[in-house]
Amino acid sequence: MAKQKLSQKAKAAKAKRDLERAKRKDRKDKKAENQRKRRAAKKAGKNVKGKDFDHKDRKFKSVKDNRGNDGKGTKREGKKKYRTTKSRKK
Question: Between the CA atoms of 44, 52, 83 and 26, what dihedral angle is there, to the nearest 10 degrees?
Answer without folding.
Answer: 120
